[in-house]
Design a protein that fits this description.
38% helix; alpha/beta; 303 residues; globular; seven-stranded mixed beta sheet; 10 helices
Length: 303
């Protein structure tokens, strides 16, 4: 099996300083807001075959997420140079946090901080799209069902696709198991990458584990509500609605060295041993990188 490659942690001191663009004035913001409302009322916007709405994403959803990204979690991104700027790739990340905010923060990171402003097309479980409002907003943000057919179509079209192979096992694990990866399933994401010849980019996320520390699980309530788990945290349900506010942990998101797949050829997707080995390589890479990021972070709620 190929040796797992740990995500390199490079200091940021060597990066050239780029002056940020000036923020638009209130007149420009007002004019833009009025134009957005007019487009929504007249239907002068487009969605793709998966339901992705770039207009709503850029003018409503991403702006709503940015305060969390910039001020609340103070997300620091590492290794963006490993993410291609104009071709398909599969971003594979660890999953945690009781609520899948990590997927949203990764989406913001790639759009706002990558030089090419890449859009991350997330693959989600059926339950996500069955939830009222949440399912519709997920579609608008560019998410689609976690199935190989949709993943391969997006990758073939040059999209950046995001997958969290731990699924509900990852986000619903108890706090005592934080930063310990769960099983990655049967490696369906590797098969999709092999068939399309795109690189696999391991992504390690530190910080999400602490936003809703899950110290208990009311399984009876989960069954009644049709949920994979019903979490008990230090603040929920004790504090009621206030318990839904995530704790302001410090986040690090690192994108690792791409693992190429094109040399194997599409037929390699039918080789179960190769698929297993590549799946294990990706998992081990992310696990080692999580340990590195934890050492780099100065504190759970640090700057």
């Amino acid at each position: 099996m190929p040796e797992a490659r740990v995500i390199p942690l490079r200091p940021d001191d060597d990066e050239p300083f780029v002056s940020p663009a000036p923020a638009p004035g209130w007149e420009e913001q007002l004019a833009g807001g009025l134009e957005f409302v007019e487009r929504r009322l007249t239907g002068a916007y487009e969605t793709d075959e998966f339901g992705f709405d770039a207009d709503l994403t850029d003018h409503l959803l991403l702006p709503a997420l940015r305060p969390l990204f910039q001020k609340w979690f103070r997300v620091e991104t590492i290794g963006l140079e490993n993410v291609p700027g104009d071709s398909g790739a599969l971003v594979v990340a660890n999953h945690s946090g009781t609520v899948p905010i990590d997927a949203l923060m990764t989406t913001v990171a790639l759009h706002d901080e990558h030089p090419a402003s890449r859009r991350l097309r997330l693959l989600g479980a059926d339950l996500v799209f069955d939830l009222p409002v949440v399912g519709a907003m997920a579609r608008k943000l560019g998410a689609t069902l976690a199935c190989n057919e949709d993943a391969e179509r997006l990758l073939t079209e040059g999209e950046l696709v995001g997958v969290f192979p731990e699924g509900f096992k990852g986000i619903g694990k108890p706090f005592r198991e934080r930063y310990t990866l769960q099983r990655f399933g049967r490696g369906g994401f590797v098969s999709a990458a092999l068939r399309t010849g795109v690189p696999i980019i391991p992504c390690a996320i530190v910080g999400a584990e602490e936003i809703y520390p899950m110290i208990g699980n009311v399984r009876t309530a989960a069954r009644l509500l049709g949920l994979p788990y019903f979490p008990i945290t230090p603040t929920f349900p004790l504090l009621g609605p206030l318990g839904l506010v995530p704790l302001p942990s410090k986040w690090l998101i690192a994108f690792g060295t791409p693992i190429e797949t094109v040399s194997y050829g599409p037929a390699a997707a039918e080789d179960p041993m190769l698929v297993f080995n590549l799946t294990d390589q990706v998992r081990e890479t992310i696990q080692h990188s999580l340990y590195q990021l934890l050492l780099r972070r100065t504190g759970v709620f640090g700057r």
